[in-house]
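## Example record

The block below lists the input lines for one assembly entry, exactly as stored, with component labels intact.
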Amino acid sequence: MSEQLDDAGKLQHLLTLEGMPRSMLETLLKRADALVEHAHGGNEMRDALAGKAICTLFFEASTRTRCSFGLAVQRLGADLLNFDASTASTTKGETDTDTLKTLEAMGVHGFIVRHKTDGAVAALARAAIPGTVLINAGDGRSNHPTQGLLDMLTLQQAKGPDFSAMKVLIVGDVKHSRVARSDLHALHALGAGEVRVCGPAPLLPDVASLHGCIVGDDLDALLDGVDAVMMLRLQRERMVEGLVPSLEDYHRDFGLTTARLRRAAPDAIVMHPGPMNRGIEITDEVADGPQSRVLQQVANGVAVRMAVLETLLG
Ligand code: CP
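Predicted structure tokens for the full assembly:
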């Protein structure tokens, strides 16, 4: 995405992990790992972005991404502005671009944007004045780059830095998942040894976007020997669209249970970006079990977002 890098190849916005050089990904992950100890308290980093104003501009619901970005902004000492789309003048018809320009005029330097429309954050990056930073906190089905980064950090902490030694399985509604897309971009860029993708045919994307992956709908077979299982949220609206027959059928065929997990490597980790549909794509026993890294993913979100903010705005 051309607007992500400046003429010198330096990151000026974070819009996608697609096409991001491996060295840039590794640098961000290394910095995030170093910031883990600062992510949950302390004042050592409070001067890093002092005097900057950063706005969380969310047009879609969020718990993890919005709150962890909010904490990351505050841990780095910047002023945090929370934009609430439900009470803002967008409800009177103000455009997203006019909203951005209005906040820029107040001296906001950075925008963390979640939007239901694919490409909406990139469009705002094109409309912004030079020097304003846009960070994609999830757009449509396209990208969720900081989730991709925190997932890679979680994998690396559990399995070591050599992605070529990892077999990773992604399960569920891959077609509609911006998380899966960002994870796939990152896994390929980091040279993951084997990437497997499992889901019902109506919830799998076109073959071209799964290039280099082992793809199928037999979860038991695909679990065999994997080092990490990344479960995805079943987006329940897909039921209404008729893409999934019933929640019971989905759980039977694609739900991760303790018995199924035994097919993976004995030290395999289980990940889920959240929010989880407990009892549908994942059982309580697995979600809360010893192999689960779900809360570690959440914790890593603060460090990753600090690293991204520091890189772009520091
Ligand atoms: N993983 C994720 O994006 O969660 P939220 O929707 O709660 O931010």
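The chain is about 35% helix and 15% strand. The chain has two domains: 2-144+298-313, 145-293.
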